[in-house]
Amino acid sequence: MHFSTHISVALNEPDAVAELASEIDREHLTTLACYYTQDHSANKLRSLLSHNFPGVPIMGASTCKGVMTEKGVHFGCVIGIMAIYDSGISSYGTATVTIAPCDNVTTSTQLAIEKALEKADRVGEVPGFVLLHATPGLEEKIIACIDDTFHTQVPIIGGSSADNHIKGHWSIFNEDLSTVQGVALQVFFPSSSLSTGFSAGYSPTEFVGTVTRANQRELLEIDHIPAQQIYREWVCDHAGVEVPKHFVFELVTKYPLGRIAGSLYEQPYYKLSHPISFSEEQGLLLFSDISEGDQVTLMSGDRDKLVGRATRVLKEAQRNSLRRDQIAGALSIFCAGPMLYLGEDIHRVQSMIVEELGDTPFICPFTFGEQGRFIGGENAHGNLMISSVVFYS
């Protein structure tokens, strides 16, 4: 099993795909993962890639402003591809399903899983892991359906598709279909072993409260007080800074809300919810679902810790492996919020990953929600997270 990554900054899809197709070796090519900025049409990429690589499973998702590989951080109008090469005993299958507001998310996700297993010729089997790319807003229901379908917690690695300015210009595709609202997933039955990691990288503060009113992704009250008021007070008391009413994205990225997802050796670990904006009802709009009765903690992200956490998650993934074979490749999912907050420091993140992995190929999009399996075995969707899978030769 081996990997290669390829980048194109061509301004139109035909030129970009032609460039990429000239670089990618076809022999033993098993699947392609494609990440692209909103400058490109998902449907054009789907059509051109499937034409150039007939019979090859392809997964695509839009990324915020750029993509990261072992060759650097690539911003602008960019397409990044990871090519995966595997032996004949491996099997991979993809599916994309559009999910309209009136559709049942569980039924649609089950259809996607069935299609992917059929294409992999592995109906009734449990995959090694699932690569998931959904459009924002559907993730928790999709994860629950995947867990229920396989009756076990198959490792999930995923990132919600993103655009550059949270304007809904995101998209996903596989070789058959592209959509701006739905789910794309791929079942992996690789010939070699793999390990996964999923982490927040933020620290809990002393401020904790109970959600007393919520509506899906709108947090309305904490301890019977408007959530907007409580959040602003917590940030001010903890950091000594005011959260202005017009909402500063980079500021709130430093101070998300966390919920305990589990514990290891009596130490809790958290999944995060990223505030997007204040709502008209004095609440907070989030990038993840929240429920009445949830206990929320104000979290804090130190810049140096945020720079180093991608490497820590890769190390965690390797610790989770029972084998110590040579690493062949890695796929990481890095939240767009911390990427934007870190600015030029994102190049330090890339350098530290290269220091950890050497010249091993890896690819990393910047997403609007992250999915993964915690060290305790739970699959979850969170914000401001990092999710990684490491493949071994």
Automatic annotation (TrEMBL):
Domain of life: Bacteria
InterPro entries: FIST_C (IPR019494), FIST_domain_N (IPR013702)
Domain FIST span(s) in chain numbering: 28-226
One Pfam family recorded for the sequence: FIST
Residues of the FIST C-domain domain: 227-374
PANTHER family, per the entry: BLR0328 PROTEIN (PTHR40252:SF2)
Designated name of the protein: FIST C-terminal domain-containing protein
Record organism: Vibrio paucivorans
